[in-house]
Design a protein that fits this description.
Layout lengths: L28 E6 L3 H13 L2 E6 L2 H7 L6 E5 L1 E2 L2 E2 H7 L8 E6 L4 H9 L4 E4 L4 H11 L1
Length: about 140
């Protein structure tokens, strides 16, 4: 070998599965919780993470705008937020929510709020307070 040192060259090859090789049941669905109560967001995040959902939280509509670019499949939307009404935002930005199932969660039990939620195309309406089981069941049903 002419006195040269031949070293074995190793190459790391990364494998990326093709689209048809992915199992949609193995992928976690994305959930975005938009609520101004940080403790509530963390509670919902803990509950749904155990149910195999990928959960993110936004405390304002402004913060939610950036996180909506990740195209969550399910959105838990509070109506009363510090920088506006969740339902008004939904009405003003309908294309932002086209690929998402929106569940309105609010402490405002007025019938007019429920009617507006239905009119805006939300899939469900939960009045606070609600049980852990109620939120699990609702998100599972929507997923």
């Amino acid at each position: 070998m002419c006195g040269t040192d031949r070293r074995k060259i190793t190459k790391t090859v990364r494998y990326f599965p093709l689209a048809w090789e992915l199992n949609p049941y193995d992928m976690k669905k994305k959930v975005l919780v938009i609520d101004d109560e940080e403790d509530f967001c963390e509670l919902i995040k803990n509950i749904l993470s155990r149910e195999n959902f990928q959960v993110d939280c936004a405390l304002t509509l402004e913060e939610a705008e950036g996180k909506l670019r990740d195209h969550p499949q399910i959105i838990l939307l509070d109506n009363n937020l510090p920088d506006g009404s969740g339902l008004d935002y939904l009405q003003m930005h309908p294309l932002t929510f086209t690929d998402s199932s929106v569940i309105v969660i609010t402490a405002d039990p007025r019938e007019s709020v429920k009617e507006k939620a239905v009119h805006e195309g939300t899939v469900a309406f939960l009045s606070k307070p609600f049980s852990v089981q109620a939120i699990r069941d609702m998100v599972r049903r929507v997923a």
